[in-house]
């Protein structure tokens, strides 16, 4: 795909002017880094970072049948969340394969917002429309919506300077609609993809440049930095958060990748339930596990995982973790070898490199007040 055919977020010109390095990602021209991946990663862990994630897709589902419609398509249970709350859930095929992982925001009793991955937006919307029944209407609001993620321990203090809303009182995975931030209306959500505290702000596309600048200015004394997709990836992997297209896809089920907690079989019928119910009872043939590489080599996506010299799985994600100071990764192994402490090997540049299966997440943020 050429640069001319790549989609651009409302902040594209801002990124170019800031000297960001832009790369194609999911059909979009996106900033992978500004000052540097490790520097941006450390800023988010210790201070704050601001991400442009406006490439994500958004759809609004309304009508008396909205909740029932989405409930039948996702594995998690919408009945467990109230208005003002968000839910993470896979969207599965009848075979239990993960079409996408998404956030569902309950904006009202009969109004939901679905947030999907950029590369999957068109396919997700087509899947949703193909199952749309009476009493529910679906609207693609991606083009009119921008999304900023302010992440890090200083995020609450920074955001508080731009609004009268007591944003620090918003609980994890809850949100407030209609919040005025720097004079612009936003949905402010206590969510993120970094393993740190922080917020995601859904705003009108035309307001993105103003709010981007306002947040960076408000956080200047705290050392906030603009951050790109490179740091977003190292941060999410340290936190044990999965990436669709790498760690899961239509060939993997939620139970295989450690998302069994999102599968609520007792809620009633939903697409993929039969396969997932059988897997729950019988077990799976493989399991996604975290591992740490013994030496300085980095295990990349697709590299073979070896057991006793034989191919037993493959790496789905791998990087150097700047906070944990280790080469970390996720990969599929037989269930009997998924327990922490199990010794495996990863084939890197033609040689087997020893590694150890460990419990994920690799990193957990310190509790408030901890040193």
Question: What can you see in these coordinates?
Answer:
By secondary structure, the chain is of the alpha+beta class. It folds into three domains: 3-53 and 143-238, Gyrase A, domain 2 (2-Layer Sandwich), CATH 3.30.1360.120; 57-140, 2-Layer Sandwich (Alpha-Beta Plaits), CATH 3.30.70; 285-358, Aminomethyltransferase beta-barrel domains (Elongation Factor Tu (Ef-tu), domain 3). It has helices spanning 12-17, 37-46, 66-73, 121-130, 155-160, 208-218, 229-238, 273-282; strands at 21-25, 28-33, 49-52, 57-62, 86-92, 98-108, 111-116, 137-140, 145-151, 175-181, 184-189, 198-204, 225-227, 287-293, 304-307, 310-321, 326-333, 343-348, 351-358. Helix 2 (37-46) packs across helix 7. The mean pLDDT is 96.
Number of strands: 19
Number of helices: 8
> If you consult CATH, what is the topology of the largest domain?
Gyrase A, domain 2
Q: What's the story with the biggest beta sheet?
A: 6 strands, mixed
Low-confidence stretches: none
| Percentage beta strand | 25-35%
Number of domains: 3
| CATH class categorisation of the largest domain | Alpha Beta
Overall shape: globular
Overall mean confidence score, pLDDT: 96
**CATH-defined superfamily of the largest domain:** Probable tRNA modification gtpase trme, domain 1
What structural class is derived from the secondary structure elements?
A: alpha+beta
CATH architecture term of the largest domain: 2-Layer Sandwich
């Amino acid at each position: 795909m050429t640069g001319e055919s790549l989609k651009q977020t409302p902040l594209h010109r801002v990124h170019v002017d800031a000297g960001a390095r832009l790369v194609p990602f999911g059909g979009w021209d996106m900033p992978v880094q500004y000052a540097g991946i490790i520097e941006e990663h450390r800023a988010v862990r210790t201070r704050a970072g601001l991400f442009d994630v406006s490439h994500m897709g958004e759809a609004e589902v309304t009508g008396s049948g909205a909740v029932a419609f989405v409930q039948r398509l996702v594995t998690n249970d919408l009945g467990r969340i109230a208005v003002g709350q968000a839910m993470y859930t896979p969207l599965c095929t009848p075979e239990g394969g993960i079409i996408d992982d998404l956030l569902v925001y309950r904006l009202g009793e009969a109004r939901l917002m679905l947030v999907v991955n950029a590369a999957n937006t068109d396919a997700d919307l087509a899947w949703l429309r193909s199952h749309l029944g009476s009493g529910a209407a679906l609207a693609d609001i991606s083009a009119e919506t921008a999304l900023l993620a302010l992440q890090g321990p200083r995020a609450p203090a920074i955001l508080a300077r731009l609004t009268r809303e007591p944003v620090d009182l918003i609980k994890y995975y809850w949100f407030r609609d209609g919040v005025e931030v720097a004079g612009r209306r936003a949905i402010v959500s206590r969510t993120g993809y970094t393993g740190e505290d922080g917020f995601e702000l859904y705003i009108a596309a035309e307001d993105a440049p103003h709010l981007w600048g306002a947040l960076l200015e408000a956080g200047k004394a705290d050392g906030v930095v603009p951050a790109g997709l490179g740091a977003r990836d190292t941060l999410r992997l340290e936190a044990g958060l999965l990436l669709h297209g790498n760690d899961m896809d239509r060939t993997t089920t939620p139970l295989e990748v450690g998302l069994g907690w999102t599968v609520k079989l007792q809620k009633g019928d939903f697409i993929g339930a039969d396969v997932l119910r059988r897997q729950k009872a019988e077990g799976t043939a493989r399991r996604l596990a975290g591992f740490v590489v013994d030496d300085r080599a980095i295990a990349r996506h697709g590299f073979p995982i070896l057991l006793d010299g034989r191919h037993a799985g493959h790496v789905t994600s791998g990087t150097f973790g700047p906070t944990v100071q280790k080469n970390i990764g996720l990969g599929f192994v037989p269930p009997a070898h998924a327990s922490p402490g199990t010794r495996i090997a990863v084939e890197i540049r033609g040689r087997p490199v020893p590694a150890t299966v460990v419990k994920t997440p690799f990193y957990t943020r310190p509790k408030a007040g901890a040193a």
